[in-house]
Design goal:
2 domains, single chain, 9 helices, about 65% helix, about 0% strand, mainly alpha
Length: about 160
């Protein structure tokens, strides 16, 4: 074994397991705990479902970067280019334009957003920004969905003249 877990480190791992509430983190800590107990790779694989390479990677990470790196949740989402206030400030120009009755297109908002952050983004990201700020798609209908066809309208006009 290249890496030996000391008794102090084992206690540290046990404390971390007691305070942990995340199942992914628990599995990583379980790898370290079983290794500290002297379990073989086969036993750890059976207990955790991790591959040998993944187990070795977790153990190496623990010795190189410490327990903090094992227990931290690195898989968070919500990576935004701008915070809520900055997005609101960017959209303020378009709010004024919409209040004046002008049409606001997402293409314009996307271009302004890209200028602000300095790189290109996907079209869907703008829709997420707009949803976050309570915007919704409002556009006039081209025609009423129950409008009669032209023949029926003409027939109706002929009937009403008599």
């Amino acid at each position: 074994m290249k890496y030996q877990i000391t008794a102090e480190q084992k206690q540290e791992i046990e404390r971390a397991r007691k305070n942990n509430k995340n199942t992914q983190t628990e599995n990583r800590l379980k790898v370290l705990y079983l290794r500290a107990e002297g379990a073989s790779y086969k036993e750890i694989i059976k207990a955790t479902g991790y591959s040998k390479a993944n187990i070795a990677k977790i153990i190496k990470l623990y010795f190189e970067k410490g327990l903090e790196d094992i227990t931290s949740n690195k898989y968070g989402g919500n990576h935004r280019n701008l915070n809520y206030e900055e997005e609101e400030k960017l959209l303020q120009h378009f709010v004024k334009k919409a209040e004046q009755g002008q049409i606001v297109e997402t293409k314009e908002i996307k271009e302004r957003y890209e200028q602000t952050i300095g790189h290109t983004i996907g079209r869907g990201q703008i829709y997420y920004v707009l949803k976050r700020h309570g915007w919704r798609k409002i556009m006039p209908r081209s025609k009423h969905p129950k409008k009669a066809d032209e023949e029926a309208i003409e027939a109706s006009k002929k009937l009403s003249k008599s």
